[in-house]
Amino acid sequence: MRLTEFVHKIFHSHPDHINPAANAMDLIKFKIVVVEFSENIESNSGEVIARLLSSKDGLEVSYFDEPFSKTFLNLESRTLFDLIDRGQTILDKTQADVLIWGYREGCKIRLNFQTEKQYENEDCAFVSLLDSLYIPAELLSSGQPIPPAVGNLIYGAVVSSLNTFSREKKIQKRYLLKRIISFLTKDDSAKNLSIEYMPYIMNFLGIIYLSYCFDRGQGKDFKIVKNLFDTALKHQDLITAPIHLGCIYNHLGQLYDCSTKYIPKQSARHFKEAINYYRQAQRYLSKYNYPYDYGYISYKLSHLFLSYWLYKEDIQALRDAVFQLRETEKIYTLSLFPEFWAQIQSELGYMLGLLGNFTKSEEISELAISSYKNQQKVITERRKPLEWAKSQEHIGEIYYRLGKNAGDKALLEEALEYFHDALYVFGNADNIEETRKITADIAKTSQSLNLLEE
Question: Which of 83, 102, 139, 185 could form a disulfide with 11 if both were Cys (CB 3.0 to 4.6 A apart)?
Fold first, then answer.
């Protein structure tokens, strides 16, 4: 397979999407740390990759060669937690944006990419730690320059892995991806790679383009990305481990998931396709073997089912949304993921509140209240007063509904207490909109109480 010819063919008809800007913003430097590779022979492949990436725009690269056992890099489920924990320790120590792991499998080098909060609420980063880019080991040990097509593919994989939280970094990430795609389309380096690398290369090409165009809402972008992932699946007989197939299905789920938001004309069909591909991914990334990937896919499924319910008003979709979020809750625990757990509890409160309202179930509504109170174990009045007050407001709304429907004075009085707590915080913060809303809630709750007392 000739990588450059295939990429040129895929992207050739879309040059308007990939020409880099004439005047780039001042480059933000993303910090990349390459960990010394795990290899069974004397080699310096990690240093070769570090030197390669050091020549790329927008990256500040360092090499981490502190000695420690790397037996966990085999990606087996029993050692996955050790890999994540060790990587997190290095990320904390180096303050890296992306950590690159390298592991030799026969004549191949496998690259994996780890980031801070990789298994929490990602910010348009579609890369899992399990996503694996294989390249021939000889390219890193021959002493010859790495072919530009391969170098830019690695560069694109690194940039795609970035979790960017500020507006400036989002813009910079997209600019770099735009340049990388342009390099890949114009690169005529004639380096032939064996067909066995096809599914892994297509997977990362799909990730690179998806990371660039995910919110553009253009059907031709969708077709390009789908073509890349479909090509990876067509060569699945070359995939050496089920987890790699699971990653490809996961990215197809991500693609259709994005399209439900940015290509609304296709929403109904794409909702179903996204759910189908995510569930396919979970067959290979099971709850017991790869819990973090499984749990995060469940998290995405919960959002899809909720959106589908809002779109179709199908009550079963709302039940499915709650079920998937409960699956996520089992994996992302308070002790290990306090912030993400609190977010899950908030979303559970919202979904259970909706379900309790539509099913007229007091029991489900009480579960919603419990979820909001769970959130407040992390989101306290002192730490995050506005978020805490919003939860108080939501709890008050549920108590109001229950009290009004049942004609229960005690529940309405409970609602008033929660509304007043929220009003105090929002009033002190000079949040006029929330203050007006809660003042209206207090007025209607008081009116309901007065009617009961007459």
Answer: 185
